[in-house]
């Protein structure tokens, strides 16, 4: 859910002017382009250590059913790509380009463009029960060939300001290295012992079914993805060192809220619900701006953009699509006429061969 924007990704958008009117994308086309970037070493992965998966800035476009057109909010030497529906008329496209250009400061193409949420708005507390005994996990044995890769990732986290070195911690968690499909290393922290002694935040997450239902029947939709969402919320300085973890470089703790900590989801959802207005369906860092009439959609987007600007929140432009008529939200395809099941989720069932005998029938 934390997103990556590689510096080398900009090379894909060279030789483009203000925007490329001839380049239209489907989701599959974009996937091929980004996969090519990864295979050529253009990906600069930046991970936050977590037990629930890495927090990273990821190139990719929010899943959508509409064809997409790429616009460039920057210049040829410093492109700022973003995506809108290819079904927009030339006049509508010009209006979207102008509006997105006016609010391009709410998008983060690099980590340096993410200021983080004001601690006065939200800060994450662990809520450790009184009388809990600190636990120092023993260090796991790491493969010698993985240690240099882990050290590189730790250096990136330090440079991003997400972690800091700590001495004499009372809690220490261990890390686990996982090899991803693209061959890169994912490092995760085992926060299970720490989570067991933390009080539960009973803030209710939205009911997915109701949120999906609320997005149907709208002629214009825009999908946005929070850029490094969890990492924009600071940790309470009082319990920062409780998140200490061992690495080959030393012991570090998280200065920002990572995935894997108990109540992190509740903290983030509470912030987002307090910030955004009724025109937005928000589930953690996935946002959908909806409008009954297409001509009113830009006005609603401006309201949302103003809120983002006010609270210093940033969106990942490579995962945002604007002015579309349909798209994927929480594993469902939403359209003006209703809801559909995502074909990718039922593909295995549809391709399953029919049972040929009684034994295969009983195994279903």
Automatic annotation (TrEMBL):
Biased composition (Basic and acidic residues): 19-30
Segments traversing the membrane: none
InterPro entries: DNA/RNA_pol_sf, Rev_trsase/Diguanyl_cyclase, RNA-dir_DNA_polymerase, RT_dom
Superkingdom of the organism of origin: Eukaryota
Region (Disordered): 1-37
Domain Reverse transcriptase: 178-334
Protein's name according to its UniProt entry: Transposon Tf2-12 polyprotein
């Amino acid at each position: 859910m934390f997103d990556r924007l590689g510096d080398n990704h900009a090379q894909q958008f060279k030789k483009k002017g203000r925007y490329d009117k001839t380049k239209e994308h489907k989701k599959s086309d974009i996937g091929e382009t980004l996969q090519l970037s990864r295979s050529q070493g253009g990906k600069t992965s930046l991970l936050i250590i977590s037990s629930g998966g890495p927090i990273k800035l990821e190139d990719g476009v929010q899943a959508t059913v509409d064809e997409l057109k790429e616009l460039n909010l920057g210049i040829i030497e410093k492109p700022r790509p973003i995506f809108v529906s290819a079904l927009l008329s030339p006049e509508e496209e010009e209006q979207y380009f102008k509006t997105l250009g006016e609010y391009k400061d709410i998008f983060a193409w690099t980590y340096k463009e993410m200021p983080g949420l004001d601690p006065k708005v939200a800060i994450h507390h662990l809520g450790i029960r009184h009388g809990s005994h600190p636990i120092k996990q023993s260090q796991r044995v790491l493969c010698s060939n993985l240690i240099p890769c882990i050290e590189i990732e730790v250096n990136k986290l330090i440079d991003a300001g997400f972690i800091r070195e700590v001495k004499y911690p009372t809690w220490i968690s261990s890390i686990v290295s996982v090899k991803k499909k693209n061959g890169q290393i994912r490092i995760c922290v085992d926060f299970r012992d720490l989570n067991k002694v933390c009080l539960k935040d009973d803030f209710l997450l939205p009911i997915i079914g109701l949120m999906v239902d609320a997005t149907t029947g709208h002629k214009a939709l825009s999908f946005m993805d929070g850029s490094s969402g969890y990492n924009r919320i600071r940790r309470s300085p009082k319990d920062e060192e409780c998140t200490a973890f061992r690495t080959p470089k030393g012991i570090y703790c998280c200065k920002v809220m990572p995935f894997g900590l108990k109540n992190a989801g509740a903290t983030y959802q509470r912030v987002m619900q307090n910030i955004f207005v009724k025109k937005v369906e928000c589930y953690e860092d996935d946002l959908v701006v909806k409008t009954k009439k297409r001509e009113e959609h830009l006005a609603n987007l401006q309201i949302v953009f103003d809120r983002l600007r006010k609270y210093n929140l940033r969106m990942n432009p490579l995962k945002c699509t604007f002015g579309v008529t349909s798209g994927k939200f929480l594993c469902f395809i939403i359209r003006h006429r209703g809801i559909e099941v995502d074909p990718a989720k039922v593909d295995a069932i549809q391709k399953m061969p029919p049972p040929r005998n009684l034994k295969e029938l009983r195994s279903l």
